[in-house]
Amino acid sequence: MDLVRRLFTAALVAGVLSGTAASVVQQATTVPLILEAEKYEVLAQPPSADGHQHAPVRNVGDGVPVTTGEAMERVGLTIVANLLAGVGYALLVGGVMLLVGRPVDARRGLVWGAGGFVAFALAPAFGLPPELPGMAGAALEARQMWWLAAALCAGGGLLAMAFARHRLAVAAGVVVAALPHLVGAPHPETIDGAVPPELAAHFVTSSLGAAALFWAVLGAVCGWLMSGLLVGTTAGTAAERQSTVAPQAGSR
Amino acid sequence: MTTQSIQTTPAINTAAGSATRSAAQTAAAAFAAILFGSFLLYGVGFAQPQQIHDAAHDARHSFAFPCH
Question: How far apart are CA B67 and CA A88, in angstroms?
């Protein structure tokens, strides 16, 4: 029970800190681009088109805040979503750290965060660029499935490359990570998005930059807070602890 | 001081630092975290009910989840 409490506490703290960092950066970078893109989304879908919403696309003009209260509510909901995403990702990372069973600290956690960035931001974005409202895209379900496959395959592949002992398993990790990209991401048949390319390009780099910061904070804090849980849990970690602690002790 | 005690007496460290636990307990805690984390991420990034979609809209776009 103590283990569960400490694991969830670590994930909660790491998630809140990384979600907060992401929220600050997003409000300055990605969110203004989203609001700008929604103006073009309105242009692309005039109210006279058919008069009703195309679920799950919001109604024309709904997304653009008009009053200060609505704007504040939108910012607040985005922050809550970011915090939940942070805690969700931190729970995944913390759980996998525990399963792998290798010692971690803030520095090693940073490497875990880099892995999370590659798996959950870079690999999906390699096939499906971060989208602004109003951009053309294939069917939502197909994109969601591919996104999930790209992220899980990249994550699993990276873990195999980092921790598998057998060379075949490492090679399998490379193949698994590449598989979704060999199959190919779903793309629209015709490209008829309304967003200017400059805006879309800027959004891709902003989104990846914010994600990089988010994952760096998440990984480092997770590693730091999980360090007490991952000392002397198994024979394997005991051996690694000997090899990693000895040089530090000797250098002092 | 701490590192020396870790190096020379791992058994004591195990007892004092992280309570002795079985592999099953570790796996159960890890899977509980992964399961709950996946549930949160499904809600933030994938769930399609209109209200959830609208609330998480800007976060979904910023995190590059496919949104609509």
Answer: 18
